[in-house]
Specification:
Uracil-DNA Glycosylase, subunit E; 38% helix; 5-stranded mixed β-sheet
Length: 198
């Protein structure tokens, strides 16, 4: 596998077109505090080989506003998340120009793969970014944003809004607050687990 570039660059139109149906390596290791789960990579992200790569995607600013990162990271610094105990994967691995190109069958198949992945890597919490995708992938038509009563792959589950710039329902400040709520819950759960283990 080629080494990922860590310096920002902008893909050409040809590179974007060539990224259709390609994949991006997961950013995972066992026992992470939180694994963030996107719907699937966009063409821009796939072309640069970094998650949430498109300018205008609010994932990285929301992560910072929520207190997960000490400063605003760029997609090209994504591997630094592992040092902070966070990871990234997707429901569906293949890149597309828009998430609505994915079929229900594809989402459901991706959901099964995701559950196996989560059972293997056992993060303490899963944050799925996109309530509509969650509803489709896991046949939960009434799911809402926030903490869930059910688990995913045996892990605690939160659903957060899709941070795409196309999601006009949530402005960046609101996304930041929701990410902060998740971080506070994860921190509180970690402290409870520490007390119970001593």
């Amino acid at each position: 596998m080629a080494k990922q570039q860590t310096e920002s660059w902008i893909p050409t139109r040809q590179q974007l077109l060539a990224a259709q149906d390609t994949t991006i390596p997961d950013l995972l290791r066992p026992g992470l505090a939180v694994v963030f789960v996107g719907i699937n990579p966009g063409l821009y992200s796939a072309a640069i080989q970094h998650h949430f790569g498109r300018p205008g995607n609010r994932f990285w600013p929301a992560l910072h506003l929520g207190g997960f990162t000490p400063r605003l990271f760029t997609p090209f610094e994504e591997r630094d998340l592992l040092d902070l105990d966070y990871g990234i994967t997707n429901i569906v691995a293949r890149a597309s120009a828009a998430a609505d190109e994915l079929t229900t069958d594809e989402l459901r198949a991706g959901g099964r793969v995701l559950e196996r992945k989560l059972r293997r890597f056992q993060p303490r919490c899963v944050a799925l970014l996109g309530v509509g995708a969650y509803r489709g992938a896991f046949q939960k038509p009434k799911a809402k944003v926030g903490p869930q009563t059910e688990t995913l792959g045996g892990r605690r589950l939160w659903i957060l809004p899709n941070p795409s710039g196309l999601n006009a329902h949530y402005q960046l400040a609101a996304l930041g607050k929701m990410f902060a709520q998740l971080r506070a819950a994860v921190t509180a759960n970690d402290k409870t687990d520490e007390r119970e283990s001593t």
